């Protein structure tokens, strides 16, 4: 099982960043492979998306720890997959840390090696993309303006949308 970590500084208050990240339906805004997330009851979610050219549907668990600004998750289908995201105060803004544990399916690992040279390198790139997309969504800007992206890939113009705050003007 591979362990991957990353962190990024965000120029928004930590409470607002956690409010955004702790809403599972916001995941498609920062997880490139996720198209849709649906809550299936307390602590349960279902996700649909496409990864490495294959559509997927997965269900799993999610645990929010608002007092620690921490979120943990795992998959029902992939028993060796799980992660944790934590948001901390940092110099007038926030720092988001992610820890991911995963062993890719052998066919996916082979494709990752072909595309990126090594599974670890592919996972580091994916982590960087995810952290950049979180920053872009929270700050309301494109994380990599020179990267080729379609209009559908850009973050919403409002950094948190209506799900993270009751103030629609944010």
UniProtKB/TrEMBL annotation:
<feature type="region of interest" description="Disordered">
    <location>
        <begin position="143"/>
        <end position="170"/>
    </location>
</feature>
<feature type="compositionally biased region" description="Polar residues">
    <location>
        <begin position="160"/>
        <end position="170"/>
    </location>
</feature>
<protein>
    <submittedName>
        <fullName>SRPBCC family protein</fullName>
    </submittedName>
</protein>
<dbReference type="InterPro" id="IPR019587">
    <property type="entry name" value="Polyketide_cyclase/dehydratase"/>
</dbReference>
<dbReference type="InterPro" id="IPR023393">
    <property type="entry name" value="START-like_dom_sf"/>
</dbReference>
<dbReference type="Pfam" id="PF10604">
    <property type="entry name" value="Polyketide_cyc2"/>
</dbReference>
């Amino acid at each position: 099982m591979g362990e991957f970590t990353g962190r990024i500084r965000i120029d928004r208050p930590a409470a607002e960043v956690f409010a955004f990240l702790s809403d599972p339906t916001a995941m498609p805004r920062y997880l490139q492979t996720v198209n849709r997330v649906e809550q299936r009851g307390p602590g349960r979610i279902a996700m649909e998306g496409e990864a490495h050219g294959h559509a997927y549907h997965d269900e799993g668990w999610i645990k929010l720890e608002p007092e620690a600004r921490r979120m943990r998750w795992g998959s029902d289908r992939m028993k060796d997959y799980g992660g944790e995201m934590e948001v901390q105060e940092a110099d007038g803004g926030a720092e988001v840390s992610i820890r991911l544990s995963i062993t890719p399916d052998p066919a996916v690992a082979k494709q990752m090696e072909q595309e990126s040279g090594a599974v670890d390198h592919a996972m580091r790139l994916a982590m960087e993309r995810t952290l950049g997309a979180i920053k872009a969504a929270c700050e309301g800007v494109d994380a990599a303006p020179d990267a080729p992206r379609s209009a559908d890939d850009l973050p919403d113009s409002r950094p948190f949308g209506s799900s993270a705050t009751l103030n629609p003007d944010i």
